[in-house]
Amino acid sequence: xxxxxxxxxxxxxxxxxxxxxxxxxxxxxxxxxxxxxxxxxxxxxxxxxxxxxxxxxxxxxxxxxxxxxxxxxxxxxxxxxxxxxxxxxxxxxxxxxxxxxxxxxxxxxx
Length: 110
Description:
The chain is an alpha+beta fold. The chain contains 1 helix and 3 strands; from the N terminus they run H-E-E-E. It is 14% helix and 18% strand. It has a 3-stranded antiparallel sheet, covered by helices on one side. The protein starts with 56 loop residues before the first helix and ends in a 7-residue tail after the last strand. InterPro entries: Transposase_MuDR.
């Protein structure tokens, strides 16, 4: 069973959440290495990738809901506030084991 308690207000600011971002260039500018989400024609076979960048909160919500509808999954929004969204898949029969987490990134203001 997975722990889906979410993160406290202090934990979501952790530098660990922003790790993997080898984003500093020699000139000091910052570019993200994460892929930017673009809604495909079908989310039925979409492969979610850790670190995907969503420009807006509603873009993530639309994508995750469309994915759930396309694949016959039930979702439960565990947390949905200004800083983060946490979604648990309840599965078609209630036994799906994945969850998705999306958080506001201060460094890119998105």
